From TrEMBL:
Record GO biological process: sensory perception of smell
Lineage: Eukaryota, Metazoa, Chordata, Craniata, Vertebrata
GO CC field: membrane
Organism: Heterocephalus glaber (Naked mole rat)
Alphabetical UniProt keywords: Membrane, Olfaction, Receptor, Sensory transduction, Transmembrane, Transmembrane helix
Main location, first listed in the record: membrane
Protein origin, superkingdom: Eukaryota
Name this protein carries in UniProt: Olfactory receptor 8K3
Membrane topology, from the record: Multi-pass membrane protein
Amino acid sequence: MEGPNLTAVTEFILLGITEGPELQAPLFLLFLFIYLTSLLGNLGMIIFTRVDPRLQTPMYFFLRHLAVTNLGYSTAVGPKMLENFVVYQNAISYYACATQLASFIVLIACELVILSRMSYGRYVSICHPLLYTVIMSPKVCWVLVVIPYL
């Protein structure tokens, strides 16, 4: 009779876009540009909607938190991908992969919930315009945004 199987998965081998070393640098620069554009765009959205007093409405409040989630899930995936272009190591540990995947899924789910809350805010502003400031008070907006992160 055979003994028990003692093998365990400790890392995953990542298959890249290309194996050609001549394409690694252009692809790195392309994805770095995309990542930095996303980063700067989301940070700009967060800063501008926070600083400008005219943008202190529920719509921009939700838009700011949507930018936070976009910033989070692009940061969950982007740096590791850029690292794999620079360092020719195509492996990721099991726990790093699980952490990256879990954070990505949680932040995508939060984004979907925030989008639904934004649509609720638009519904209230169209169907109940006189009660909009009562229904969408700052306290209610905070509760609607904090719940997905719990």
